[in-house]
């Protein structure tokens, strides 16, 4: 079994984190080649759970969130997946073999119980478990689910040249089976669950806003990789397709969430994973 799951409640909504790959160090040069450990030092007191002791790398977890709301079971992002090949850029994810689906079931969410899968975007560590390999064919991992993806990202990656292998393995089989709802980036799934346009990391990137009984939560996807970007929203990642737009998306989140009760859930934040953005002096910090 993987790491124990974490759970939060927001009004009538229950959110469960299930980990595929526990927190691993990613050196600064992979995301922010112009930064050094000295740049992280002013934030060390509250950033400690999310960086190495030396401050020379950020710690990133790969996990999913299961949202239970409005009589729905919704998975937000499906991690890396087993048996997929991502090439030389991310060799640590090639032909992965984890017990993710078993861990998901142990948390109370067998694959057949899932109603909807939301992909915040179509990078490989967010769509890998969309499908599983059976009889040499990639088939839906969540057989009773609709897969909700922004139309912008479906169109962008579907026409990208050369088309990413992960699209052919984790998205095209769903399109072929007519299981994808390619939606507007502000699509509302139910009374409590809505997509929020947060472009920049990818052209059609979305966050997920949850609202119940006057309380609110926000699942970030990759608009934020590390909580330090909430203090320094101008620190766009090398993985962002449009760094300036990604910064604008982060600033829009901060304008809505800072010094409020909004629970921010980081799609790559290790435990404690969720917290609130608060003012501290002339800056901001993330309090888990």
Q: How would you explain this protein's 3D organization?
A:
This protein has one domain (6-287): Metallo-beta-lactamase, Chain A. The model has no long low-confidence stretch (mean pLDDT 96). The protein has a seven-stranded mixed β-sheet with strand order 1-2-3-4-5-8-9. 20% of the residues lie in helices and 32% in strands. It is α/β, with parallel strands linked by helices and 288 residues long. It is built from nine helices and 15 strands.
Task: Map the helices and strands.
Blueprint: E1 6-10, E2 13-27, H1 28-31, H2 37-40, H3 44-47, E3 57-69, E4 72-76, H4 100-106, E5 116-119, E6 131-134, E7 137-140, E8 146-150, H5 151-158, H6 165-170, H7 172-176, E9 180-183, E10 193-197, E11 206-212, E12 215-219, H8 228-231, H9 243-257, E13 263-265, E14 274-280, E15 283-287
Parallel strand pairs: 4-5, 5-8, 8-9, 12-13
Antiparallel strand pairs: 1-2, 2-3, 3-4, 6-7, 10-11, 11-12, 13-14, 14-15
- The helix/strand series, from N terminus to C terminus, equals EEHHHEEHEEEEHHHEEEEHHEEE
The CATH topology comes to: Metallo-beta-lactamase, Chain A
- From the spread of the alpha carbons, the general shape counts as globular
What's the CATH architecture name?
4-Layer Sandwich
Q: CATH superfamily, called what?
A: Ribonuclease Z/Hydroxyacylglutathione hydrolase-like
- Gap between N and C termini, in Å? 25 Å
The CATH class turns out to be Alpha Beta
Report helical residue fraction: 10-25%
Average of the residue pLDDT scores: 96
Uncertain regions: pLDDT < 50 for 5+ in a row?
Answer: none
Largest pleated sheet = 7 strands, mixed
């Amino acid at each position: 079994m993987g790491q124990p799951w974490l759970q939060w409640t927001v009004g009538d909504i229950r959110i469960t984190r299930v980990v595929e790959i526990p927190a691993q160090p990613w050196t600064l040069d992979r995301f922010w080649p112009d930064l050094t450990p000295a740049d992280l030092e002013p934030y060390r007191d509250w950033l400690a759970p999310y960086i190495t002791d030396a401050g020379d790398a950020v710690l990133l977890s790969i996990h999913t969130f299961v949202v239970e709301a409005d009589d729905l079971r919704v998975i937000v992002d499906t991690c890396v997946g087993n048996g997929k090949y991502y090439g030389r850029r991310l060799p640590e994810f090639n032909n992965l073999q984890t017990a993710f689906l078993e861990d998901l079931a142990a948390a109370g969410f067998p694959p057949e119980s899932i109603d909807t899968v939301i992909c915040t975007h179509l990078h490989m560590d967010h769509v890998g478990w969309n499908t599983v390999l059976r009889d040499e064919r990639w088939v839906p991992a969540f057989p009773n689910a609709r897969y909700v993806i922004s139309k912008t990202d479906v169109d962008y990656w579907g026409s990208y040249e050369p088309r990413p292998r992960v699209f052919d393995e984790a998205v095209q089989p769903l399109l072929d089976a007519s299981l994808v709802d390619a939606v507007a980036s502000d699509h509302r799934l139910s009374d409590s669950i809505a997509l929020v346009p947060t472009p920049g990391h990818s052209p059609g990137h979305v966050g997920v806003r949850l609202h119940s009984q006057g309380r609110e939560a926000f699942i970030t996807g990759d608009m934020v990789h590390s909580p330090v970007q909430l203090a320094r929203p101008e620190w766009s990642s090398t993985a962002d397709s449009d760094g300036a737009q990604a910064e604008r998306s982060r600033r829009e989140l901060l304008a809505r969430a800072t010094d409020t009760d909004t629970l921010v859930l980081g799609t790559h934040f290790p435990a404690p994973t969720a917290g609130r953005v608060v003012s501290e002096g002339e800056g901001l910090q993330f309090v888990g």
